[in-house]
Amino acid sequence: MRVMVFFDLPTLTASEKREYTKFRKFLLKSGFLMMQESVYCKLALNTTVSSAIVTNVKKNKPLEGLVQILTITEKQFSKIEMITGNFKSEVLDSDERLVVI
């Protein structure tokens, strides 16, 4: 299963920026990976674990702003289509990065 967190938080004042940063760091420390800006995803072994993840996110949500959580199966997650424009990456995706020891 996957737990996806979508959020839209205000960042106008310094205190709102701190809350945004605190929530984002909480997600990263909890094992979430950023899929795109304000969309984070975490792998869960079963529904019990995903329920615990959802509860933990609810406990750490900021006071203001919108936080949405979606739990989906691995089969549903695997059907995500990545549609991108021109994307420049510094990562070598060839046998040039192969290291033989």
Give the class-level CATH name: Alpha Beta
Which radius of gyration do the C-alpha atoms yield? 17 Å
Given as residue ranges, the uncertain stretches (5+ residues, pLDDT < 50) are none
Instruction: Examine the coordinates and then state which fold CATH places here, giving the name of the CATH topology.
Output: Alpha-Beta Plaits
Shape: globular
* Topology pattern, helix = H, strand = E: EHEEHEH
Count of domain modules = 1
Give the overall pLDDT as a whole number: 89
Family: Belongs to the CRISPR-associated endoribonuclease Cas2 protein family.
Pfam family, one: CRISPR_Cas2
Subunit structure: Homodimer, forms a heterotetramer with a Cas1 homodimer.
InterPro entries: CRISPR_associated_Cas2, Virulence_VapD/CRISPR_Cas2
Descriptive key words:
Alpha-Beta Plaits; 101 residues; 3 helices; alpha+beta; four-stranded antiparallel beta sheet; single chain
Walk me through what this model shows:
- The chain is an alpha+beta fold and 101 residues long.
- It has one domain: Alpha-Beta Plaits.
- It is built from three helices and four strands, in the order βαββαβα.
- A hairpin with a 2-residue loop joins strand 2 and strand 3 (39-43).
- The longest helix is centred in the first third of the chain and has 16 residues, at 14-29.
- It is globular.
- The mean pLDDT is 89.
